[in-house]
Amino acid sequence: MIKNNKIYKLGTLMVKTLETDRMILRPFELADAPDMYLLGSMPQIIQYVGNTPFKHLADAENYLKTHPLNDYRETGFGRLACVDKKSNQLIGFCGLKYMDEIDEIEIGYRFLPAFWGKGLATEAVKTVLDWALEEKHCTRLVGCIHPDNQASKKVLSKFGFKKEKTVNVAFIPDVPVDLFVYEVGD
């Protein structure tokens, strides 16, 4: 359950498809399990997020059911599949997620290594951030970033996110993460 009144307003959002110059950001479907398997099993992708690598396709299916698909039902928003317009390939994800343990809405993203360094995370974050702000549903967003993940810090810093503090989160149990914050009016 979302506790913070500012955040509660987001529960009424409908999961929406967004578009950038190079990508379609759409809700995940169970049929995306093979692509989610790649995003959740490659060590270089998950090195900073604390996930146990998926060992089987069923792990990715379960993840989709218990994370983005469940988030859509519970909060009306969640991570969105990022699909390359030219190839129609699912190349990553970006979107919002309510994090109960810190009572915040986090913007998060992950891409396949072949698509790193091309500005896609920046493009996706800009689109999700603009949507969240234009719809006037968010006054504060956070990013939980492993202290060694300089690339993610750089992406969020481009949009005015600032490190507020370090927090402990269950998904990265051994390392406090940097909490980067964006607040309307800052």
From TrEMBL:
Family matches, as SUPFAM superfamilies:
Acyl-CoA N-acyltransferases (Nat)
Pfam family membership, one = Acetyltransf_3
The organism's superkingdom is given as: Bacteria
- Taking every annotated instance into account, which residue ranges of this chain make up the domain N-acetyltransferase? 23-182
PANTHER family listed in its UniProt record: GNAT FAMILY, PUTATIVE (AFU_ORTHOLOGUE AFUA_3G00765)-RELATED-RELATED (PTHR43792), N-ACETYLTRANSFERASE DOMAIN-CONTAINING PROTEIN (PTHR43792:SF1)
Q: Which protein are we looking at?
A: GNAT family N-acetyltransferase
